[in-house]
Write a structure and sequence with these properties.
single chain, Aldehyde Dehydrogenase, Chain A, domain 1, binds nicotinamide-adenine-dinucleotide
Length: 542
Amino acid sequence: MANAIFSVPRPKNEPVYDYVPKSKDHKEILSALDEALGKKIEVPMYIGNKEIFEGEKISMHPPHDTKHILGHYYKGDASHVQLAIDAALEAKTEWSEMDWNHRAAIFLRAADLIAGKYRYQMNVATMVCQSKNVFQSEIDSVCEFIDFLRFNVYYLSEIYNRQPAANSDTIWNRLKYRPLEGFVFAVTPFNFTAIAGNLCFAPALCGNTVVWKPSEDQIYSAFWLQKIFKEAGLPDGVINMVVADGPATGDVVFNHPEFAGLHFTGSTKVFQQMWTIIGQNISKYKSYPRIVGETGGKDFLMAHGSSNPVQVATALSRGAFEFQGQKCSAASRAYIAKSIWNETKKHLVEQVESMKMGSVNDTSNFINAVISKASFDRISGYIDEGLASNEIECITGGTYDDSEGYFVKPTVFVTSNPSNKWMAEEIFGPVLTIYVYEDEDFEKTLELVDQTSPYALTGAVFSTDRYAITLAEKKLENSAGNFYINDKPTGAVVGQQPFGGGRASGTNDKAGEIFNLYRWINVQTVKENLLPPEDYKYPFLG
Ligand code: NAD
């Protein structure tokens, strides 16, 4: 593989448009939204050079308007998964042998297409498909994805430039960076369009070819990712999008000897099932597969008695309820010192009750719908059980309605038991549970934060007391892959706060960072002796 390196300057983060009402961008986005809602699209599976309209035909609906039909996608079966693997393997040699600068150019072009020509379209696709308001969509499907594309190219150039020293004039050492042998399997979640794009593209940038299984709740925006990749010049067979039942897909992939890596984001349970199957099949593979998974969270906010109640309330209302709490990083348990609780509660309830809920078409809505009937049922189950529990007091929300879309009112519970399921399990919806602790129990409560949940994704501490902050940072060192001081625990930016967690939250390979790219390359060390010795005797032999 030719790895000629040209200097790649460090990119800047894509600026976020703010869509102020009546601005040009606001008008443009509304008109793009109207246009999208007036059309129906048919989404094929993209396998090799074929667009496959086979299998079960399934309609797509905005989660906030379940009667509206956005179009249809086609759900295949194990035979389509096999075709996708074959297509990936067939495309592999040519793609991996292409000079990396050309591979990178395709993805940089995709970034530019999203930044310009397709900006509104990408936003609208994510707004209607995943029920994100325009701002949430802009920071995900446009800015974060562009940053993934540009920063990964920059980081890969750094890896390729890393070469060992030559210790003498007659020895030349070099590292050759090859892709993995075989194909990579990307399995992506519903909640971030940027993650779906990145999980396929990052291994492909490194010269791998990919079988991609998107979430069935994200197909409409996945279609636009494929369209943009194609327009940017991505050759057939490099990223093959197959839609099939999860376990059935896994069954074909994890039994294939050329399975080389899993790039997964989704729930902890699914990741653990996959890892188990991979482990059981380990002797079938040509190489040890790379397993990268970013999974669930039970993200915390810990407020010390010295913190500012309005700032704590604002971090909670944004951190817990943006995108209906369906961010892996969303604050879903909070620990508030008793001395600031009344004031914090007043601001929090005021803020949450002022949030408008409804369709993404009205951009003054802060809250939209949750993704699906299954999510709605799961979240409303946690709410009902909470309302019935004598350990829980509901201070706002607690209602839901799926007559038009899957709407759940942002709900805040206060619990007398800091270890119950609302404080420990991932609910993945707009439900925040708070435990009020005695101010003098700050250190003891930090231990509780650390031990209550198996997850370790994000967490925040609020305080103006530097001793309290340093104690929290030390005690919670392993409780969060992304730790925030006086900020909400969401909103990581590529190139600024590399994202990922440990414990049950994943392998912590930090998406969009150099650490992640190392997982998709295979390093060969070459030592060349320019003047091979001709006598076996070392000097010490005399
Ligand atoms: P999910 O686990 O239900 O699904 C993820 C993907 O796995 C989907 O494509 C799904 O179809 C597929 N899948 C499900 N069962 C499968 C199986 N047995 N074999 C193969 N594939 C299978 O997750 P979701 O609901 O789409 O996303 C939400 C979850 O993702 C939450 O737990 C959230 O915390 C997590 N998440 C984590 C991060 C992170 O960076 N840590 C980021 C986003 C989302």
